[in-house]
Amino acid sequence: MTDIEIAQACQMKPIGDIAAAAGIDEKYLEPYGKYKAKVDHALLDESPRQEGKLVLVTAITPTPAGEGKTTTSIGLADGLRRIGENAVLALREPSLGPVFGVKGGAAGGGYAQVVPMEDINLHFTGDFHAIGAANNLLAAMLDNHIYQGNALHIDPKSVVWKRCVDMNDRQLRHVVDGLGGRVNGVPREDGYDITVATEIMAVFCLAGSIHDLKERLGRIVVAYTYDGAPVTAKDLKAVGAMAALLKDALKPNLVQTLEGTPAFVHGGPFANIAHGCNSVLATRMAMKLADYTVTEAGFGADLGAEKFLDIKCRYAGLTPSAVVVVATIRALKMHGGLPKTELGREDLTALEKGMPNLLRHVSNIKNVYGLPCVVAVNRFPTDTDAEIAQVIDSCARLGVKAVLGDFWAHGGEGAVDLAHEVVRLCAEEKPDFRFSYGLDAPLEEKIAAVVRKVYGGEGVAILPGAAKQIARLTELGFGGLPVCIAKTQYSFSDDPSKLGAPEGFTVTVKEVKVSAGAGFVVVLTGDIMTMPGLPKVPAAEKIDVDDRGVISGLF
């Protein structure tokens, strides 16, 4: 059976039952149909319960062979409940870009999924539409201000705020708008970002309340005056209307796994071009309700986990009790140079060459961030006993346990061993959590710290234009913010062809800009783009719906 067929065969419980199992009083619940609901964040202030432990799931550098990070996260939460622990999930919402692009659905896989799978992968509760509407309202108000006399003296050539759409559409990366005469606006070069790469998405996911949301929205820099002074959303008097569009979306979404584990699915920034983790509100709500909250950060640990730890945890005051690094033997062999077409055969040499990728990620979690760690080996039928033993032995030499799991085929049952090890880590190994850089360091040093400590690179090459941007942002008072580095997810370096654990490389910084509302400085490296394109054969070509309204081909 395919993932969607497994999900459609599930007998879901009414969302009220899931809420009751999670300890959510009915007064906080706002149902969206039978199987999903919003939960009022008043629960956070009114619940007397202490926050439980936080478990972060991350992974090795991704390959086309797949790692199964979301599947592992869901399986682990189900596994924790199977061994009698009170566990809740906190995941990101899928973007329509990957759903219709390369990946297809993103709600887990096999017997470790969150449901209703089709709703979660498509429109869900409308959060992304609200975020896009707020983003584009600000863009419209900005251009209207310029058109209506430009009282703030905005330089149209300095506008940095883009419109957005939650779709992979390379045609919109660079556009010229306002054409057709004065009545149609002021002509200028413009462009679109994908919704999950926008600052509104970052603000949404980092906000701790509606008040905090409005404060962050007000700080967003949209353009600069002819004198070089920043112009904000607050200057344009856009904050109230934007917050009104986002007020319902800000409430976390409650759904369930195939095994009935409560799951919050809320927010969805990409980890290669944004900060890559679900909302602070959803994470905190899960921690208020459960002894163990399982959450996930996107792509490899050099991207999602680094930003989760250096940005989200810094702002929200969170400290993970344990980290799970997901790996597959197939992907490690690919990092060792084996072609994708040959991953099904045993190759201990390729596996040995690929192991440094896993070991660098593990070392970063343990030695850079000071957190207890376990490796989850997401098992495939082609994995041999010799290959499994080699991974376990290599991890043991680094002082980390590797645990086999079969989450896709067996859900929570396939994650019981991993669940026991996570509980042990949380009980016996105390975190000595620290960030990879301090906020008082200059922006250049923060970037270099991530490149050297986390990526394993030699240094940073900052192009002249980017150096000027850093100097200007520092002059404007943004030098004390954390950095959100946008780079390829396929390598520790900024070159996607450098697999494994490359050394001696330099990361090239091409552009630096501030996301003042989110509270970080975005650093663009390599050929990273904030609007992806569709592949030659997009996943959308395989998706359909029959006369009964049943969707197929989603994954």
Walkthrough of the structure:
- This protein is α/β, with parallel strands linked by helices and 555 residues long.
- α7 packs antiparallel against α10 (239-246), α9 (210-219) crosses α10 (239-246) and α13 (329-335) packs across α14 (348-368).
- The protein starts with a helix and ends with a strand.
- The mean pLDDT is 95.
Entry keywords:
alpha/beta; 555 residues
- What structural class results from the helix and strand content? alpha/beta
Q: Tell me the helix content.
A: 25-40%
Q: Distance between termini?
A: 11 Å
- The count of helical stretches stands at 19
Average pLDDT across residues? 95
What share of residues are in beta strands? 15-25%
Largest sheet: 12 strands, mixed
By oligomeric state, this entry counts as single chain
Q: So what's the overall shape?
A: globular
Radius of gyration: 23 Å
Low-confidence stretches: none
Topology:
Layout: H1 3-9, H2 15-22, E1 29-31, E2 37-39, H3 42-46, E3 53-59, H4 69-82, E4 87-91, H5 96-100, E5 108-109, E6 112-115, H6 117-121, H7 127-147, E7 163-165, E8 175-177, E9 188-190, E10 192-194, H8 199-206, H9 210-219, E11 221-224, E12 230-232, H10 239-246, E13 253-257, E14 262-265, H11 280-289, E15 292-296, H12 301-316, E16 322-327, H13 329-335, H14 348-368, E17 373-378, H15 385-397, E18 401-405, H16 407-410, H17 416-428, H18 443-455, E19 459-462, H19 464-475, E20 483-486, E21 506-515, E22 520-525, E23 544-545, E24 551-552
Parallel strand pairs: 3-15, 3-16, 4-14, 4-15, 7-10, 16-17, 17-18, 19-21, 20-22
Antiparallel strand pairs: 1-2, 2-13, 5-6, 6-13, 8-9, 11-12, 13-14, 21-22, 23-24
